[in-house]
């Protein structure tokens, strides 16, 4: 078993947060998640998160403080998910490397089928709102 270190962005725009839908042919296809992705070996998590958001959604964010850390096991893979609060800089996201995206309130997140690793983050956001 190996551990993958993955970053995710909690991007706020007023009272809503950006969520992204995984592509159909990806692991956990069509599930919803907070945008981000795997770190490259030796990459700083904040730099990796900025890179992933640019690659996945063609937008820039300002990465802030850590919001939550989630440890989750999918079969033979251990995921360590580092979630950071991020500031939206006004650039409209695109679906460059995701199926779809939405701006939703924490309460509206119950209407979306999130990946298991993202569920603790959803719950924490709902408790804070």
Q: What features would you describe in this structure?
A:
Mg(2+) binds at residues 36, 56. InterPro entries: Mutator_MutT, MutT-like, NUDIX_hydrolase-like_dom_sf, NUDIX_hydrolase_CS, NUDIX_hydrolase_dom. Keywords: DNA damage, DNA repair, DNA replication, Hydrolase, Magnesium, Metal-binding, Mutator protein. 8-oxo-dGTP binds at residues 22, 33-36. The chain has a single domain, classed as Nucleoside Triphosphate Pyrophosphohydrolase (Alpha-Beta Complex). By secondary structure, it is of the alpha+beta class. The termini are far apart. It has 2 helices and 7 strands, in the order E-E-E-E-H-E-E-E-H. The protein is globular and about 40 Å long. Helices cover 18% and strands 42% of the residues.
Give me the Rg, rounded: 13 Å
CATH class: Alpha Beta
Mean pLDDT: 93
The amount of helix comes to: 10-25%
Structural class: alpha+beta
Topology:
Blueprint: E1 2-13, E2 16-21, E3 32-33, E4 36-38, H1 45-57, E5 61-74, E6 77-88, E7 100-104, H2 119-128
Parallel strand pairs: 1-6
Antiparallel strand pairs: 1-2, 1-4, 2-3, 2-7, 5-6
Characterize this entry briefly.
Strands 1, 2, 3, 4, 5, 6 and 7 form a seven-stranded mixed sheet that branches.
Labels describing this entry:
Nucleoside Triphosphate Pyrophosphohydrolase, 7-stranded mixed β-sheet, 129 residues, alpha+beta, 42% strand, single chain
């Amino acid at each position: 078993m190996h551990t993958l270190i993955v970053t995710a962005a909690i991007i706020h725009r007023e009272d809503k947060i950006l969520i992204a839908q995984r592509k159909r042919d990806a692991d956990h296809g069509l599930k919803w998640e907070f945008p981000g992705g795997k770190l490259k070996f030796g990459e700083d998590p904040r730099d990796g998160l900025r890179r992933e958001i640019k690659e996945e959604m063609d937008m820039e964010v300002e990465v802030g403080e850590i919001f939550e850390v989630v440890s989750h096991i999918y079969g033979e893979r251990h995921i360590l998910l580092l979630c950071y609060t991020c500031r939206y800089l006004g650039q409209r996201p695109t679906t460059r490397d995701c199926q779809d995206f939405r701006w939703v309130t924490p309460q509206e997140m119950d209407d979306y089928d999130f990946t298991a690793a993202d569920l603790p983050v959803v719950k924490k956001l709902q408790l804070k709102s």
